Amino acid sequence: MESLIFATNNQHKVDEVKLVLGNQFHLITLREAGIEIDIPEPHDTLEANAKEKSTTIYQLTGKNCFSEDTGLEVMALNGEPGVKSARYAGDAQSFEDNVAKLLNNMVGISARQARFRTVISLIIAGNERQFEGVCEGKIAEFRTGGNGFGYDPVFIPDGSAISFGEMNGIEKSAFSHRKKAMDKLIDFLKQSMF
Ligand code: ITT
Q1: Which of 45, 142, 175, 192 has most Cβ atoms within 10 angstroms of its Cβ?
Q2: Nearest CA to ligand 1 atom 8
C-alpha cells in the first residue's frame, strides 16, 4: 500500500482524515515520521498556506505528502475569521477564546450564514495539486456539544438541526468540508499512477 505523510500538527484533523481514508492508503503522521516542526502559515489565503505546509514537509523528507488549511468564513464578518481562524483571538490559538470572540462579534447579527472551507495541498513526486471542500451552515447563538474541535460547538451545517459539536465523527463527515476535500483527493489518487 502506498504511503502518504499528512503534514499537520492537529490530531483532530488526523482522526477525521483517518476515518475517511479507512485502509485505502497508509497515512503517516508528522509524529510517526519523527518530524517536530511548527509549520509556518504566513500567507493571507488558505491556498498559499496549504502549499507552504506541504512544501515544507516535502523539502524536508522528499516523500509524497499532503497538508490542509481550513477557515471558517462568516458572511456578516466579511469572511472572517477565514485564514486567521486558528489565531482569531491571538497567538495562543485557544479554541475557547476564538469561539468567545466569534460569538461576541456576532451579538445582534441575525444573518448568521457561514461556511467552512478546506484546501488540501498534495505533493506527489514534486508536483502540487489542490482540492477544495466547502460546508455551508450558520453560526449558532451559543455553544452546544463537546465533540470535535475549534468552532464545532457553534457551527450548524445546513440540513442539520444540531451543531458539529453534538455529532460524532461519522455524523460530522456526512456534512464535512474536510471529508468533501478528502473525497476529491482520494479520487485523484485512485485515478493517478500513485
Ligand atoms: P495544522 O496547520 O497543523 O494543520 P491548525 O490547527 O493550525 O493545524 P489550520 O491552520 O487549518 O489548522 O487552522 C484552522 C483553525 O480553524 C483550527 O485551529 C480550528 O480552530 C478551526 N477549524 C479547522 N477545521 C475545523 C473543523 O472541522 N471544525 C471546527 N473548527 C475547525
Answers
A1: 175
A2: 10
Q: Which secondary-structure segment (H or E) carries 100?
A: helix 95-105
Residue ranges making up the domain that contains 14: 3-192
User: Residue 194: pLDDT band by 50, 70, 90 thresholds?
Assistant: low
Query: Element (H or E) spanning 157, and its range?
Result: strand 155-157
Q: Check if 150 has its Cβ closer than 6 Å to any atom of ligand 1.
A: yes
- φ, ψ of residue 162 to 5 degrees: the values are -120, 160
Cβ-contact 163, 154 below 8 angstroms: yes
Q: Tell me: the pLDDT tens digits for 51-101?
A: 999 999 999 999 999 999 999 999 999 999 999 999 999 998 899 999 999
Number of domains in the chain: 1
The residue ranges of DSSP E strands in 65-126, in sequence order, are: 65-74, 80-82, 113-124
CATH number for 16: 3.90.950.10
Catalytic residue, chosen from 15, 38, 44, 69, is: 69
- Which residue minimizes the CA distance to atom 15 of ligand 1? 86
- Count of positions (residues) in the chain: 194
Give the Cα-Cα-Cα angle 81, 84, 85 (nearest 5 degrees). 65
Q: Note if 69 is an active site residue.
A: yes
Ligand 1 centroid to residue 193 C-alpha, Å: 30
Whether 13 lines ligand 1, by a CB cut-off of 6 Å, is yes
